[in-house]
Fold this sequence. Notes:
The structure is a single chain. Helix 2 (20-39) runs parallel beside helix 5 (101-117). The protein is 49% helix and 16% strand. It folds into three domains: 1-48, no CATH class; 55-187, Rossmann fold; 206-370, Rossmann fold (3-Layer(aba) Sandwich), CATH 3.40.50.720. The chain has helices spanning 3-15, 20-39, 42-45, 48-52, 101-117, 138-152, 171-185, 205-222, 240-251, 275-285, 292-298, 327-335, 351-360, 367-370, 372-387, 393-417, 424-442, and strands at residues 57-66, 72-83, 89-95, 124-129, 161-165, 232-236, 255-261, 264-267, 301-304, 315-318, 340-342, 363-365. The chain is α/β, with parallel strands linked by helices. The strands form two sheets. It has a seven-stranded mixed sheet, with helices on both faces. Strands 1-2-4-3-5 form a five-stranded mixed sheet, with helices on both faces. (2Z)-2-iminopentanedioic acid (2IT) is lined by residues 90-92, 111, 114, 164, 166, 193, 346, 374-375, 378.
Amino acid sequence: MNAYVETVLANVKAKNPNEPEFHQAVEEVLESLEVVLERHPEYQSMKILERMTEPERVIMFRVPWMDDQGEIHINRGFRIEMNSAIGPYKGGLRFHPSVTLGILKFLAFEQVFKNALTTLPMGGGKGGSDFNPKGKSDNEIMRFCQSFMTELSRHIGPNTDVPAGDIGVGTREIGFLYGQYKRIRNESTGVLTGKGINWGGSLIRPEATGFGAVYFANEMLKTKNTSFDEKTVLVSGFGNVAWGAVQKVNDLGGKVVTLSGPDGFIHDPEGVKGKKVDFMLKLRASNKDAVEDYAKMFDVQFYAGKKPWGIKADVALPCATENEIYEHDAKELVKNGCICVCEGANMPTTIEAYHVFNEAKILYAPGKASNAGGVATSGLEMSQNSMRLPWPKEEVDKRLHEIMIRIHSTCLTTAEKFGTPGNYVNGANIAGFLKVADAMLDQGLV
Ligand code: NDP
Ligand code: 2IT
């Protein structure tokens, strides 16, 4: 690492103790930027890295709510408004007991580069709460969402900050949040994305992250003159992103043989198709936090406490959460002949595991490029809301597909231009960085 990058990283670690995921995300980006900084000393003299690693604003708040038995609970709510150089803060809300300030800062940091890659005018943000939806009733979830939005509403707006879903936040939660925002502000502005179709949502948004990741992976496979046809595919997670990815792999002739949850993974050699795909929605809505029910329902093998990376396959699509592919998993995937790893989740691969893929020269795409289809379609939802005109499904899907193809080629041309052809990590980090950094330079000391 060059001395400037090392100093910036050391300062980030010192100023943000106990935030290992944030350190990891920053390190991965900075690793890619050394060659950019050599060619463009102005980014160093203008302290762009120091600015980008400091959120524009962090909001932390109390979320009191009452359960069905009348007991009071207090959770912590957050919104990280990371960077607004190219548009309003944009990014999801995560409700999961593992949520901390550091996790949301890593996600907000990634979101800045991802949103820049979409080519749409969106800055980066992220928020959420350590609230655990597991085992909660619909009424409890509603009361929590209403309390959360009562505070958040004063900080967001269609031209300021536009939240959406992430882990634990789907259309049901967005509905409760949106309803409360409307009551407080008396405005029907599309201030959240991922809304229901009848109240301002966009067709294809629920599927978009998974569809987009598979469109991206398909472009990667094309560079090796191959396709999804007859490929065996490992998917992790069983949530929104995994569900979209499974559908699109099936459309393109591939076969998904695994799904996973916090409890373990299922192996379905016949493929997750037809009514099994619909069953994924039931699993997600059950608030049970487990994938084992799939194995019971369809009589397939369940591996408790394990991840799916040891199963032989051609393609891996990690779609659950961060840091789920470690160095030994990466070695296993390579050993078993996997030719392409394309991230649906945010930062599922550790830096050491990424180095394994890089050395083995297999296709590997980081989430900030390959899962950008979700937020891109959120951007398209914002456009439709502003026009007050919904687009048909085909129109949204076509735009999503075009955006993913464009992100893919931007990654490859940028990687090539900066001396590491075929390296999607460098391509994504550098292209996203240049757009945001130049916007910041244009706007003075911001
Ligand atoms: P969902 O809540 O729909 O699904 C998340 C999945 O990951 C579930 O299977 C969930 O199980 C599992 N999971 C969550 N936390 C853990 C954990 N600590 N250990 C193991 N498994 C876990 O979320 P999404 O599908 O929306 O999100 C999945 C990933 O994709 C995340 O990394 C998210 O940041 C990313 N992403 C999401 C986008 C979107 O539009 N929704 C866009 C781009 C990226 P359970 O919830 O039952 O614990
Ligand atoms: O990580 C992500 O890109 C998301 N959770 C989607 C964000 C959005 O604003 O649609």
